[in-house]
Amino acid sequence: xxxxxxxxxxxxxxxxxxxxxxxxxxxxxxxxxxxxxxxxxxxxxxxxxxxxxxxxxxxxxxxxxxxxxxxxxxxxxxxxxxxxxxxxxxxxxxxxxxxxxxxxxxxxx
Length: 109
Fold this sequence. Notes:
The protein has 4 helices and 4 strands; from the N terminus they run ββαβαααβ. By secondary structure, the chain is α+β, with helices and mostly antiparallel strands. The protein has one domain. A 4-stranded antiparallel beta sheet has the order 2-1-4-3. α2 runs antiparallel to α4. It is globular, with a radius of gyration of 16 Å. It starts with a strand and ends with a strand.
């Protein structure tokens, strides 16, 4: 899959690069290799699963302070990465809006 395009009747399409779309689908326990659907009944659990993954991701990103740490937060590579929190925010918003409207989210169709 070149990109993931999440579609619903409630929102505009949400397009993600393969690595990011795949990660979110894996967090939700969905098969990222083909088309799929998230139904409104699953959306509250999906938001909770993503938020739990964000919390875990942020805990792993926290720098471990040591006695010789000068407080400089320049971490090089990690400062160039976009966090899971930022990447997942549009998807969480889509899930919440679609749940309220009672419509499915589909991809790969």
